[in-house]
Amino acid sequence: MTFAAILTAAVSLSLVGASLLLKQGTANASYYWQRGTQVTVWMQPNASAGELKAVSTQLAQLPYVDHPCVFRDHEYDFQEARQLLGNEVGSPV
Q1: Which of 10, 18, 27, 69 could form an SS bridge with 56, CB 3.0 to 4.6 Å?
Q2: DSSP labels, the chain
Q3: What's the average model confidence in pLDDT over 59-85?
Q4: Taking the domains of the chain in order of start, what are their residue ranges?
Q5: Structure pTM?
């Protein structure tokens, strides 16, 4: 009888936990879907200002692009990696 009570409590708590995880996963997925799609365009580090401007102009002319382009350099990416990974990141290349 004790074993049945313990098993019943374990199953019910597992179901509650699973439903909470499912709810959180659904909320996260909904948040990312509402944000829309993000596209990353990688360019050569030695690209000229004219090339960057041409790509930005072409992207801005697309009807489904809502937000302006954001250009980031090596230093920005390095600082973002350091913030995410902490001391595991070495010096920038």
Answers
A1: 69
A2: -HHHHHHHHHHHHHHHHHHHHHHHHHHHHHHHHHH---------TT--HHHHHHHHHHHHTSTT--S------HHHHHHHHHHHHGGG-----
A3: 82
A4: 1-36, 37-93
A5: 0.45
